[in-house]
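Newbie here. four chains, one complex. Structure please?
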Amino acid sequence: MVKGRLEAFSDGVIAIIITIMVLELKVPHGETFAALTPLIPVFLSYILSFIYIAIYWNNHHHLLQAVRHVNGRILWANVHLLFWLSLIPFVTAWMGENQFAPIPAALYGAVLLFCAIAYLILTITLIAHHGRESELAIAIGRDFKGKVSLAFYVVGILLSFVNSWLACGIYALVAAMWLIPDRRIERTLVSENLSNK
Amino acid sequence: MVKGRLEAFSDGVIAIIITIMVLELKVPHGETFAALTPLIPVFLSYILSFIYIAIYWNNHHHLLQAVRHVNGRILWANVHLLFWLSLIPFVTAWMGENQFAPIPAALYGAVLLFCAIAYLILTITLIAHHGRESELAIAIGRDFKGKVSLAFYVVGILLSFVNSWLACGIYALVAAMWLIPDRRIERTLVSENLSNK
Amino acid sequence: MVKGRLEAFSDGVIAIIITIMVLELKVPHGETFAALTPLIPVFLSYILSFIYIAIYWNNHHHLLQAVRHVNGRILWANVHLLFWLSLIPFVTAWMGENQFAPIPAALYGAVLLFCAIAYLILTITLIAHHGRESELAIAIGRDFKGKVSLAFYVVGILLSFVNSWLACGIYALVAAMWLIPDRRIERTLVSENLSNK
Amino acid sequence: MVKGRLEAFSDGVIAIIITIMVLELKVPHGETFAALTPLIPVFLSYILSFIYIAIYWNNHHHLLQAVRHVNGRILWANVHLLFWLSLIPFVTAWMGENQFAPIPAALYGAVLLFCAIAYLILTITLIAHHGRESELAIAIGRDFKGKVSLAFYVVGILLSFVNSWLACGIYALVAAMWLIPDRRIERTLVSENLSNK
């Protein structure tokens, strides 16, 4: 089975998810800067989620490049990932409209956690299909970043109930880790994470 | 006529249908778990419909792989399928917001039934164009699952007026039948369905 | 310049237009059949517009198949067509929510008229680029249907102020003319149209 | 890394942005022409933004044609552009619903300015990857239009607080400059802009 339509469908769904979030930026009635003020937390959560979805598209793009063929199991692992990504607009809006309150911030982290688990399942399914010696398996490697992210999300969810801004700081930190392509930062984060446990 | 744009257009429409459903998950005003409670039936119907649309994309993907060329009749049979699929977000939201009440559950089943009929028409149109001896006709085969699903939807619609939760259980069962690629389960369901009549 | 992205972008925009119309089918609050009654005109106008947008996608698909190369002028003629198509969801909802009242029905016809004019401009621009002797020019031919449609839309718009249901009947007739691939029906419609003048 | 999915994802996001703006044209309750009157500024701002997004798609299309290969930096420069474009529906609706009031008009100009800066960053990133002697670098050239546009947006933002209609006239002028492929007009605008400083 060729991968063309898997990529096209994923691109379509991810493009819609990243774009419909802007519909939650409800147009205010006033025409002053003051009318925009209540939108600031909504806008901040929009930026964070936009970056997260872009990271997933980016990683999905890289991952699929090394893929040679797909099967039914892979199609479903991919749909499973898209399902969790599709919930990001909802939790983004809930968190933004409640000024990063504890429970919305925890739910946001939980959705990020399930996205990360779904991505991990997708990579495992792909490796199972291509073989442990394949170019794909070598390209994915030990996937430190992915596993560190999982741990960080759990820390973030727990922190939400203590200080939800700190939790969102953790989520932003994970996003930054994926954005900055410096290997040393990655290693530092890994060791920091290990010492946090 | 080549099939490239037929696939691209279908991918686009299905990607949008599966994604805009999340817009019906209206962001609650409160910031507590209690604020999320009324959303549970909406969320359950979202999951069911997400799986159904993913199944249709999956099957469409498999079906089109064996297609060699398309004509005007096939384009319209495909648009007809997309029309019924496009109604899923509406019936999903209606069913979810009314806690799986009888009439919404029956209408949900009716839309699933028409989607299945439209899919059947599409396969018949494709076979008529490619010939009964074509690779496509052999790949589709006798299409047991498709015909069993039709019968189950009718049972579900009728059951809605008796017990709408049972009806939704039937819809979930059909979805599970498409998800689980075990041939024995498929045969069991066929015989169960026959003994139900 | 290759035509690949022109097709991809048009497919994307048309797929979104045809799908977001369903968002105007606002979920009713009641759970009875009676709750659906006010939606009937909205649903009828949805079906009509769904068919129209599918016809445009279909014709666009056929038209672009004979296209060999594109230039800036063609890109803009295409964007101009997409602009008018993008207004269809708005006029569809306005007409549906006002039970096919005169002015909404006239505006609906006006948008259809401008879509048809934009399509005509696109074909003229394509022929100007490919030459009068090109395969494309021969494929388009004298474009009877296109010109008859223009006349019918004008008749429909004028009729809206007399009897708006009759106007919508005209719009439905034009759609049927494009759906039914019988050449004799086409000729009959042409002569009827001529005798109407 | 090939550019196929970068184009497909960008096409998807831009197609959605250009189309969801029409959702801000809220269907009025009355059925008269008078009911449409309050929508006129919203519609005017819709047209302006539709043209702007079409220009960006057009330019993106031209730019990517000369691109041979992409890297992670380019993917992110592209996502950065899509982020600013994704804000256009919001500022369009805010400006339209407030009849082109000063602050909404200034914010609209600011988003246009950031889109233009993001586009400039994308071209610089592409040239850095392809080399100053590449076909791409030559095709982009000195990019007079791009730099003039930046200056005009700043002028427009400042003018918003004096006369917001004049500011919108400036934005429309910049759009016209990109639409009209006459080199003399371009040069005239450049010299006018220089004499304005």
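Moderator note: DSSP finds ten helices and no strands in chain C. The interface with chain B takes residues 7-8, 11-12, 14-16, 18-20, 22-23, 25, 27-29, 31-33, 36, 47, 50, 54, 57-58, 61, 64-65, 179, 181 of chain C (CB under 8 Å). Thread marked as resolved.
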